[in-house]
Amino acid sequence: MSSAATTLNDLRVSARLETLLLLREETERKAEAHRKEKEHRRRDKNAAREERILAEKAEAEERRRQDKLEMEERFRREREDTRARTQELVMLIVALTKKA
Predict the structure, then answer these.
(1) Which of 22, 49, 66, 93 has its CA 20 to 30 A from that of 32?
(2) pLDDT reading at 33 higher than 90
(3) In angstroms, how far is the first alpha carbon of the chain from the final one?
(4) Phi and psi of 43, rounded to 5°?
(5) SS3 (DSSP) at 94
(6) pLDDT value of position 3
(7) How much of the chain exceeds pLDDT 90, in percent?
(8) pTM over the 0.70 mark
(9) CA 48 to chain centre
(10) What whole-number distance in Å separates Cα of residue 9 and Cα of residue 49?
(11) pLDDT of res. 45
């Protein structure tokens, strides 16, 4: 083979190697970008889950607070009703004792 043919062959091999290296670098960049995107999605998913959990806890706390207020209001009304019935009974007893 002549030196020109050898040089041409060397250039072809060199170009192929360079192409392979560029393809490898591109593949690595794409893989890294994919890993970063996957990690970003995982973090977003975790943040959304944490936010949902906190919202659920806040809702549960609000429900407990409302239940407590309703129970206190029900107790207050029952106490007032009991007091009113007691007063009615006392007035009835007084009225009956006056007639007797």
Answers:
(1) 49
(2) yes
(3) 144
(4) -65, -45
(5) helix
(6) 80
(7) 81
(8) no
(9) 4
(10) 59
(11) 98
What type of residue is 20?
Answer: L
In sign, the C-alpha dihedral spanning 34, 39, 42, 48 is negative
Q: Which residues of 32-60 are buried (b: 16+ CB within 10 A; e: fewer)?
A: eeeeeeeeeeeeeeeeeeeeeeeeeeeee
Please determine, for residue 83, whether its predicted confidence score (pLDDT) is greater than 60: yes
From residue 39, alpha-carbon distances to 31, 46, 50, 80 in Å are 12, 10, 16, 61
The label of the residue with tokens 């040089």 reads: 7
pLDDT, the chain, mean: 94
Q: Residues, the chain, total?
A: 100
Please determine, for residue 1, whether its predicted confidence score (pLDDT) is greater than 90.
Answer: no
**C-alpha angle 16/20/25, rounded to 5°?**
150
Cβ-based burial of 61 (10 A; exposed 0-12, middle 13-18, buried ≥19): exposed
